[in-house]
Amino acid sequence: MNWKSHLVYDALWIAHPVLQFAVAAVMYWRKQHRIFPIFFAYLGFQIAGFMILFPLHKWGEYSHYFYGYWMLSAISVVLGFRLIQEIFEDVFRPYHTLKDLGTVLFKWAALVMLLVAGVVMASSPAAGDPVLQAIVTLQRCVRVVQCGLILFLLIFSKYLGVSWRQQSFGIALGFGSLAAVELTLVALHASAHLSPVRSSLFNFAAYDVVILIWLTYGLIRAQARVSAANVLMSQRWEQGLTELQHPSSSDSLIPIFEGMVDRAFSRTGGPQLLERKTTAASSVTPSSGTHVALPRQFASKS
């Protein structure tokens, strides 16, 4: 890497915490850090990570920078997955049953990713570090899920009533775009179509663009959810899952049958027929096998 590339690399890297601090300040000013606490913590973590890694990269030993980078990357993977869950919960905030189902699915997805990382760690060659291989695998799994999240929002935003001006959509758009760029750069670097220097420069530049997207979404006024007929499908999903989760008991069918009988009587015989049937039912004496509680004065005479 020549001196010009070093200058561009450092400039793009230094721009990260500056823009991230601007995004965090806007979120705090608009009280959005209460809605997205994980994303707010992610911004603070990235700023703190820069303050640790940048001096180690410039003036420290490479071994310290190497282990510090991968330790922070492991924490960033966990925060990245929690960010996906936070965006998902904000999107499905009006649909409590769907949100509960999504939470269960995310827990299973996290378990599957940990299993995949464990398999990669156990089957990695002796020449490579198995822990680093596991972290890289987790990173790529999270990136794939982030790409899937933005595709999900682009396809189903109309049915969920999600506006493209909502901050959750902007956060997902940023992470999804960054994930797509990183996965593309990894593929180009693995196939020897892109050098590591250019790959790092493109990655840093893409992250700066993503932070600018977050800053733009933080500054614009969020639009309310769409309450049109498009959300009826999501409401039907919510109602169907609620009925599966809380099935109706057999006793709740009695009022339905009573209403059906009342409507049948009112259509066929009218109120008079219903009155005659009620009178006849009240005049029937109980059978000998039925225990009837008599009033106190009759019980004393007997």
Structural features, described:
- The chain is mainly alpha-helical and 302 residues long.
- It has 2 domains: 3-227, Up-down Bundle (Rhopdopsin 7-helix transmembrane proteins); 229-275, no CATH class.
- The protein is built from 11 helices and no strands.
- α1 runs antiparallel to α2 (37-59) and α3 (62-91) runs parallel beside α5.
- It starts with a helix and ends with a helix.
- 17% of the residues are buried.
Oligomerization: single chain
User: Which overall shape is indicated by the principal axes computed on the Cα atoms?
Assistant: globular
Give the helices and strands as they follow along the chain. Answer: HHHHHHHHHHH
Total of DSSP H or I helical runs spanning 4+ residues: 11
Helix content: over 70%
* Count of strand segments: 0
The proportion of strand residues reads under 5%
- Roughly how many Å is the radius of gyration? 32 Å
CATH architectural label of the largest domain: Up-down Bundle
Helical/strand content category: mainly alpha
Q: How many angstroms does the end-to-end distance come to?
A: 111 Å
Query: Can you give the mean pLDDT?
Result: 75
Low-pLDDT residue spans: 227-234, 249-253, 280-302
Secondary structure: elements and pairs:
Elements: H1 3-29, H2 37-59, H3 62-91, H4 96-123, H5 130-160, H6 167-190, H7 196-219, H8 232-245, H9 253-268, H10 270-283, H11 296-301
Helix pairs in contact: 1-2, 1-7, 2-3, 3-4, 3-5, 3-6, 4-5, 5-6, 6-7, 9-10
